[in-house]
Structures are given as structure tokens and as C-alpha cells.
Write a structure and sequence with these properties.
heterodimer; A: alpha+beta; OB fold (Dihydrolipoamide Acetyltransferase, E2P); 3 domains; six-stranded antiparallel beta sheet; four-stranded mixed beta sheet; 7 helices; flat; B: alpha+beta; Ribosomal Protein S5, domain 2; four-stranded antiparallel beta sheet; 9 strands
């Protein structure tokens, strides 16, 4: 086995991209850091999230971009830990089995709750949850297992209530999990995608991307027979999965937002290279630049 | 001693967002003092540390064995590092808006890679930038400086050679370069007559340091915005 030792790059990859002309979409004046004044006329504006009043000025408390909505001034943090919104698709790990609920780590500030009542138990949609089910909870979802769920409610202290009351959601079995910063995930209507390369992907809003051979609902039929069975995945599908995982990591490293279009673009453009080459600095930086340029071009054309 | 004017600080060099696993991270150089800092959280921490109305802040200061003039055997956990850790915790409890994250915990790790004087001040600057990188709500960016007195004259940003003398030194940290002080530490004895001049000098230098940090933080945050966000 050989190692290549190289010093840290003089310019970090994401700096390289941001310095290019690609970043004309951001206005410098609108980016603030904590303690920067947002407005000096608090009598004309209302202060929103991410601001406070100091000596007759509205001052930012977070580092992010200023948003104005009529008279409401708020600062939206660019980079922050995941804070859930109702309807988000999240991928998380079960950390604790409690009485009548599971605690799930979804990369949020606090662990989220998955009550026994909001899971779809095998056999029948509307059956009663009884004591027997409570005893079988750890049989159904154990500690350390991955699940996919939807945010149902955000409580006042920031705890998320999640549910898996749909065939789409539930336990995840075979696949690759990639964690990315949640601000890179672009929200869209659909977060479950079956890609034309023989595999599927779940882009969790909390920054967990799950690359899997097939979505839960498509192989649900076979599940009724044997629940804990693992299927054999052919080599081509496995290679495609690893390539998609490499693409997600590349997009993450160069802070390009992750959604269906950017992923497929990345996948197509990475075809000339081997998968292991995608982790090399030289290839990845060139590729990332081309992808960003292409995506920006597409957006401009649409406008 | 190294050819600077009494009120001249050393070169500040920073790099943000180096640690991909941490929410926020920062590497800062004040001349030859080099500090690496990482911020994790806010996350659901240990139940013993949990506070119902605000978040708890856990800070760990450590210096590498090769950071000082003599080789150390214990990089962390000795009395001096524990004291500095507690000082940093207290200082940042008043900087971070802890009320907005009830029942969670923020971990701050600070490692001095090379200590050439003003270690505490460098740590505070590093943590401030790392917190700004992590998007944690704060009153402002804290900046700090160490200030000493020689023959009645204040000198700023002491190096380790200057610190070996038995001269009084004050470390002062303010928010956003304004009058709000979050940390004062005095080592050795200081004559009361010098107190005012030292504090004034330290405060104005803090404002200068803040200007440097603010520019860096803003540039970095701009670069962080996802392409096609």
C-alpha cells in the first residue's frame, strides 16, 4: 500500500470556487457576522430571528445573510446545525428505546422522539398498539439502527416529533450513509429518488444522504415473507452506489448544494474517471469547477 | 523585544473551517503562537451537564507537549490548563446567547500547537471565530489581547520571552471591540497607577484585533454559502 503525502492546499477547495466569478450571486453587504449592525433605525423595523437590539441599533447575533420581509429584519444563518421543519424528510439513528417511544439522533440539537403510535407496524394500517407491542419495541427497532422518517411537529424547545406512518419511511437496511453539512441540502418536493443507474437515494434534510440499492417501498412486498433478510446486490449496482457516494462527498467538499440535478450532473461528468480518482485533489477540484459552472449556466438559461 | 512598537500587535493569520467533522473550527496564528480550535454542537450532551433553561458550555484547553519552552509531560489536565479552561468557559457563557438552546451542550476544544506568549488571548480569538463559523448566536465576536507594563509604559501582545520576566500582564477580552468586557486576567502585581493606562491600551488593541477577525469571519461566511443554495 502506498501513501501520498501532501501538505494542505494553499487555497482551500471551497475558497477556490468561491473566488471565481461563480459567486456574483452574493452581495457582500448582506453578509453579517455576530455583532454587526443590521439597521440603525429600530423604530422603522421589527427585529426578527438572529438579531437583538443594542444601543438603538438592530444587531445580528449569527453569521449569515440578512433577509427583509416588509418591515421584519432577520438574519438567516448560512451554516448551522440542523433545525427541523415540519414535513422534512430525515435520516437518523435510533439511540435509545424508552417506554412507548424511541429516541432518534437526527443530527439536530436534541434527540427527536419517535412515539410508538406513529410507526407503521407490520400487518394492518390501523391496528391498536397494545402492551404486547410495547414489549416488542426493541424487536422492531433496535439501538443503532437507521431509520428514515418525516418531521411531524417541532416542539417549543426544539425537540422534533417524527413519524414513519407511510410505506416510504421506516427502517433502512442496505446502503451507504454519507453525512454532509445540512446547509448544503437543497429542499425540494421529493427527497426519494430512484436513479437510472439501478439504485436509489434518499436525501435527508438533516444532512444524511442514504445511498441504497432500492427504496424501502419497492422491496416492501418481499419483506412480508422475511423481514431481516439481506439481498444480494450485483457488482454493477454496487459500483454505481459507490460512485454516487463519491459524488456526494465531492459536492460536499466543494460546497455545492446537493439535489437531484447536481448529483446526476456530477455522476455523468465523473464517468471518464475511475471512482478512486474522484478523491484526488487534482481531479476533484477540476471536476467541481466544471460542475459548478455547468449548474450556474443552467440556472441562468432558465431565467 | 522583537522589533515591534509598544502598541503594535504581531501578524495575525487565520484559516477557518478546517475541521470537517466539527460544526466550526479555526486555526489562528499570532506571530509564532499557533492555536487550533474546534466547536461541536449544540447537541444533546450528558444528562449530568444538562441545564433546563440554557445550554451548557464545556471547554477544554490543552497545549501540545512541544508547545512551550520546556517539554511538558502532561498536555492537559494539569492545574494551569484546567484554570484556563474554566476561564474560557465563563467568558464564553457571557458571549454566547445560551438561552436559545435549552438542554443542550456546546463543546469547545482548544489546542495550543506552539505557545509563544499570549496563549489565552489567542485561544479566545480562535474560539470566537470557530463559534462564528458554527453559526452559534452570540452577542458579538470576542477579541482578546495580553498587555504588559515595562517601566510604566504599556506594551501589547507579549511574546514568551517577554512573559518570562516578572512583569505585570493583563489579558482583556471585549465583545465586538466595544466597552463590554468578558474576561480580565492579571498575572503578577500591577501598580494601581498603571491600571488605567493598561486597560485603555488593552481595550483599544482589542478593537484593532476585532477588526482583523471581523474581516476574516465575513469573508469565510461568504465563501461558505453553498453554490446554488
Amino acid at each position: 500500500m502506498s501513501y501520498e503525502v501532501s501538505g494542505p492546499p494553499l487555497v482551500s477547495p471551497w475558497m477556490m470556487l468561491s473566488m471565481s466569478e461563480a459567486r456574483t450571486d452574493l452581495d457582500d453587504a448582506k453578509i453579517v457576522i455576530p455583532g454587526h449592525s443590521v439597521s440603525d433605525a429600530p423604530q422603522h423595523f421589527m427585529r426578527g430571528h438572529g438579531t437583538y437590539i443594542r444601543e438603538g441599533e438592530i444587531v445580528s447575533t449569527v453569521s449569515g445573510a440578512v433577509n427583509q420581509l416588509n418591515r421584519l429584519l432577520m438574519v438567516k444563518p448560512i451554516k448551522q446545525r440542523y433545525s427541523g421543519e415540519v414535513g422534512d424528510v430525515v435520516v437518523g439513528r435510533v439511540v435509545e428505546v424508552q417506554a412507548k417511544r424511541w429516541k432518534v439522533d437526527v443530527n439536530s440539537r436534541l434527540h427527536s422522539n419517535l412515539p410508538l403510535g406513529s410507526v407503521l407496524l407490520p400487518g394492518g394500517d390501523f391496528r391498536r398498539k397494545d402492551v404486547e407491542d410495547e414489549e416488542k419495541m426493541s424487536e422492531f427497532l433496535k439501538n443503532g439502527e437507521l431509520i428514515c422518517a418525516e418531521v411531524q411537529q417541532v416542539q417549543h424547545d426544539g425537540t422534533l416529533m417524527i413519524h414513519t406512518r407511510n410505506n416510504k419511511y421506516g427502517k433502512l437496511r442496505q446502503g451507504i450513509l454519507i453525512k454532509v453539512p445540512p446547509h448544503l441540502i437543497k429542499k425540494s418536493k421529493v427527497h426519494f429518488h430512484t436513479l437510472p443507474y439501478g439504485m436509489a437515494i434518499i436525501i435527508g434534510c438533516n444532512g444524511c444522504v442514504w445511498v441504497t440499492p432500492a427504496l424501502p417501498e419497492t422491496f416492501e412486498e418481499e419483506q412480508h415473507v422475511q423481514i431481516s433478510d439481506y439481498q444480494k446486490v450485483s457488482q454493477e449496482v454496487r459500483l454505481a452506489m459507490v460512485r454516487v457516494a463519491a459524488c456526494v462527498r465531492l459536492l460536499k467538499d466543494y460546497s455545492i448544494s446537493i439535489y437531484l440535478n447536481s448529483l446526476t450532473t456530477c455522476y455523468e461528468m465523473s464517468q471518464p474517471y475511475e471512482i478512486k480518482e474522484l478523491y484526488e485533489q487534482e481531479t476533484s477540484s477540476r471536476l467541481a469547477y466544471l460542475i459548478a459552472a455547468k449548474l450556474l449556466h443552467e440556472i441562468q438559461e432558465n431565467q | 523585544m522583537d522589533g515591534r512598537r509598544p502598541s503594535q500587535i504581531r501578524n495575525i493569520n487565520t484559516r477557518l473551517g478546517l475541521n470537517r467533522n466539527a460544526e466550526g473550527s479555526c486555526y489562528i496564528e499570532h506571530g509564532n503562537t499557533k492555536v487550533l480550535c474546534a466547536v461541536y454542537g449544540p447537541y444533546e450532551g450528558k444528562a449530568s451537564k444538562r441545564l433546563e433553561n440554557r445550554c451548557s458550555i464545556v471547554c477544554q484547553y490543552s497545549a501540545t507537549t512541544f508547545s512551550g519552552l520546556e517539554r511538558k509531560n502532561r498536555p492537559r489536565g494539569d492545574r494551569k490548563s484546567t484554570e484556563i479552561s474554566r476561564l474560557l468557559e465563563k467568558a464564553f457563557e457571557s458571549v454566547i446567547l445560551t438561552d436559545s438552546f435549552p438542554r443542550s451542550q456546546i463543546d469547545i476544544f482548544c489546542e495550543v500547537i506552539q505557545g509563544d506568549g499570549s496563549n489565552l488571548a489567542a485561544c479566545i480569538n480562535a474560539i470566537s471565530l470557530a463559534l462564528a463559523d458554527a453559526g452559534i448566536p452570540m452577542k458579538g465576536i470576542a477579541s482578546a489581547v495580553t498587555c504588559g507594563v515595562i517601566e510604566g509604559k504599556p506594551i501589547v501582545d507579549l511574546t514568551s520571552r517577554e512573559e518570562t520576566d516578572l512583569l505585570p500582564r493583563v489579558t482583556l477580552a471585549t465583545i465586538s471591540g466595544r466597552d463590554e468586557v468578558v474576561l480580565v486576567e492579571l498575572q503578577n502585581r500591577l501598580h494601581i497607577d498603571h491600571l488605567n493606562t493598561v486597560m485603555e491600551t488593552a481595550k483599544s488593541t482589542c478593537a484593532d484585533v476585532y477588526e482583523c477577525l471581523a474581516v476574516v469571519a465575513q469573508q469565510h461566511i461568504r465563501a461558505c454559502a453553498p453554490i446554488l443554495g
